[in-house]
Structure formats: C-alpha cells, structure tokens
Amino acid sequence: MLNEAASFLETLFSHITDAILIVDYQGEVIGVNPAFERLSGWSAEEVLGQKSLCDLCRGMATCQEESSCIECFASRLKTPSFQMHLQTKQGAELPVAASSTRLPEEAGGMGALVVILRDNSEMQRIERERHQRQLTNYVIQAQEEERKRISRDLHDGIGQALYSIMVGLRVVNQIEMDDATKHHLEEVQHLTARTLEEVKSLSVELRPSALDDLGLVAALRSYAKRFEQTFGIVTTLEIAGQRRRYDSSVETALYRICQEAMTNAAKYADTDGISLRFVDEVDRVELHIEDTGVGFDPTQLKVRGTGLGLYGMRERVSLLGGTLKIESAPGEGTAVHVVVPLEEKGGPRYGHPIADRG
C-alpha cells in the first residue's frame, strides 16, 4: 500500500504541469520536477546540489508588500500566494505565480521547503492587453463625448449667434443708405452666411445629429450625400436587411469607420466612385466600403500616429468584438469589410458597449 502511494506521488511529481522546486533548510536545491526544467531552462543536473534558492530567486512580492531577502518566504512556514521572479538559464527574469509550504520537520533539522511555480507571463500579457483595451475604450468614449459637446456648442451657440447677426443685417439693409455702404453691407451678409454654413458643416462633421436622433442608416445616407457634394465622387449606398437602431457604441464605431475609409479614398485613392453596402443580419451587421481607385499593397502599409487612421479603425472594431479586413492591390481599388456580431437588442455580442454612451 505504501509502495503504491509512493509510486502515485512520484508520478504526480513528474507529470504535474506546475513547476516544483524543493529546497533544504540551508537553501540548497534538492529537488525539481520536469515542469521546472521546462519553465526555467535549467536541467535537474545543473541545479541539484549546484544552485541555491537565492541563485534562482530574483525577488518576490505579495499583494500587500515587496519582501526583502531578510523577509524571504523561505523563512516562513507557509506563504499561500506571492509573485516571484525566477532566474532562467537564458538570463531572463520570468514572473511566476508561486506558493510555498514547509514539509514536516525531520530529525536533525528543519523540514524542506516546497515551492510551487506557475508561469505568469502569459497572464500578465493578457492583463496588459485588457488594460490597454479598456484605456482605449475610455479614450474613444471621451473623444466622442467631447465631439458631441463641441458640435452642440457650435450649433446652439455660435450658429445661433451668426443667424441672429444675419437677421440684424437684413433689417439694417432696409434702411436708406448710399450705394457704397449698401454694397459693403451685402458683402458682410454674404460672409456671415458662408461662415454660418461652415459652422453647420463643422458641427455635423464633429457629431451628426442624425446619428443620435435617427440612427446609423440615416446618418450614413446623409454622410454619403454630403461626401458626394464635397469631393465630387459618385457615392452609392445599398441597405440590406431590416432597419433598426443599434447600441450607441455600434452606431458610432461603424459611422466613424465609414467616415475614415471614405476620407482616405478621397485623399489617396484617386477614385471617381465609392460604393457603400450595409447589411443587417439577425446576429451581426456588415459594412462594406469599396472604391475604384489606384489601390495599394496592404503588406507595405505602415500605420503611424493616432486618432481615426487605420489603427483607430481596427481598435474600434476590436472593442466591439468584430473584424475588419482590408483588401487592395495596386490598380485594383480598395475594399474595407467590417463585421460586428450583435445581440438580439442590437448591442455588441463580445465587445465593450460603454465605448460611447450616446
């Protein structure tokens, strides 16, 4: 019976996925399992009787404290959870989640210390990525809120003030005056009207009211019309599937992606035509933007800077749990395909619905 138990424990020691390090009361390594060899790069022959705990440990920390060598976990009977930096054979310091416990005392000295190690680098990478995505999400949310505020101030503040000035100028224009003064007044009226139109256009570019009031489809239709008038590029829009409202984060992201893709086409594609296709399926929405321009080699594309470039487009889609695919080749135009999985109520199925609070 004892032999069977010993055999079982030996098998467990050899096959467990967590690395195990056994240290005697003097701090010398007296046992390691194969998982430790794989984790550290050290072979058993290179550490047994050759290395001490201090040769392998490059520092430890608990959630409450950074521990010094004097307060080392080796001096404690048990440390349920801490982080340790393991010195690998390649010279790297590998962050590992660890726990330690001391075996029952043996005759003539303290019991051996058993340290269980688990590679923490992948978990830390995932946590960093999660934090980065959360930070990006908050930045996009703050950006949209600020755009909405400025757009509203332009429309309700400066826009209304300019309109009031125009009304006043029309009243003044009814007064008898010499031709030179009247001509000058008319020029001021025309300048004020142009400025008012520019303010309205800027307000819409920052945050179109149609996006909040009427939804994504209406906003895309309105933007396509303005785009065609501004750049002289023939723009077609096809809508397939049901027409419904989506979560604000979905509508904002798709609108901004469409805006960026079409602006890029106008700037760089040398195209005379752009087609938009928006498809609403039961469990997802798709947005396709295609131009007939000069195209480019996507493998040679270098994404630089921040904001609403290609990097920003990918980030917006990623935050919604969707995918963005860019197809292009020199002389063959460019196609941008976006797919966002949706819940039944129009929210992102896998993403972060707080990307915009509407």
UniProtKB/TrEMBL annotation:
Its cofactor is [4Fe-4S] cluster. Its main location: cytoplasm. Signal peptide: none annotated. Pfam families: HATPase_c, HisKA_3, PAS_9. It is an enzyme of class 2 (transferase). InterPro entries: HATPase_C_sf, HATPase_dom, His_kinase_dom, PAS, PAS-like_dom_sf, Sensor_HK_TwoCompSys, Sig_transdc_His_kin-like_C, Sig_transdc_His_kin_sub3_dim/P. The keyword Nucleotidyltransferase does not apply. Its EC number is 2.7.13.3. Residues 5-56 form the PAS domain. Keywords: 4Fe-4S, ATP-binding, Cytoplasm, Iron, Iron-sulfur, Kinase, Metal-binding, Nucleotide-binding, Phosphoprotein, Transferase, Two-component regulatory system. Residues 254-344 form the Histidine kinase domain. It is found in: Cytoplasm. Member of the two-component regulatory system NreB/NreC involved in the control of dissimilatory nitrate/nitrite reduction in response to oxygen. NreB functions as a direct oxygen sensor histidine kinase which is autophosphorylated, in the absence of oxygen, probably at the conserved histidine residue, and transfers its phosphate group probably to a conserved aspartate residue of NreC. NreB/NreC activates the expression of the nitrate (narGHJI) and nitrite (nir) reductase operons, as well as the putative nitrate transporter gene narT. This is Sensor histidine kinase.
